[in-house]
Predict the structure.
Amino acid sequence: MSHPIAPPAPLLDRFGRAHTDLRVSLTDRCNLRCTYCMPAEGLPWLPAGELLTRAETTRLVRIAVDRLGIRTVRLTGGEPLLRPDLPALIADLAGLDRAPELSLTTNGIRLAALAPALRAAGLRRVNVSLDTLRPERFALLTRRDRIEDVFAGLRAARAAGLAPVKVNTVPVRGINDDEIVPMLEWAIEHGYRLRFIEQMPLDPQGAWDRDLMVTAAEVLERLAARFTLTAVPRDDASAPAEEWHVDGGAATVGVIASVTRPFCGACDRVRLTSDGQLRTCLFARDESDLRTLLRSGADDAEIASAWRIALFGKGPGHGIDTPGFLAPDRPMSAIGG
């Protein structure tokens, strides 16, 4: 007679927060050079031998879901669609006994070609980063003339059933904040779920300027001048986006106020970099090395124990909007979104 497998003990920190959401970066490389993310010449990429292999990534995720209570996994980068083994890796993760819900964040450049294979492998949802609808502005922001590829990728994701297709937009004052209303009109027309995200200090140039950040309150003020917004009740306090129904219909818009209204008190996320470093927060100043444990022959119990110890040291919040804040040493492309 078979017996159900007991659920793992929750992955807790010292503030009692249970972590169920794992962000896994698959590469630090990217095929865009967005001005707020990296310099025009790019960044020094991690050597291939330092990156987790497909088997190593799968093992760490298996430990996370089997022993630590992780339920959702988001694949990030860099640009995760640059990983040639991505469909096979997704199939590995989807085939785990305690398979997590799988989603992916991408710039969309290669999504048109890959969306059907990713869906067939077990991916459920995608978030596509897009900060403008204007081709010339896209080329200026990303230093690449590829906006039509992004539009094609969005259409392909929707056709493949990667629903809902979410679009993430970072408004910056004097750069693209004049598109706040047009972006929502476009998203509603095409059936995408739009989310505005406050700009965060994660650029390696250190050029982030608090005064150029368009706050969530300002985004909502501009949207409310054009649309009727009705707040969607928040069932999950750990969800980063606050959402509103638009004009009484089914369409919604979200705002992620990471800086001005941080949700650290209910955070359920933990991050794994592409080179196997565990990060307890996007803005953490230190990391825990799981790759060395993997490659030195540690068993699953040892790795799970190291994971729990690292999480217990997680801080109360990122402190972006405080005077003593220090940005992490690694850029966003190396940390994973």
About this structure: The CA atoms of residues 36 and 207 lie 8 Å apart. DSSP finds ten helices and twelve strands in the chain. The mean pLDDT is 89.
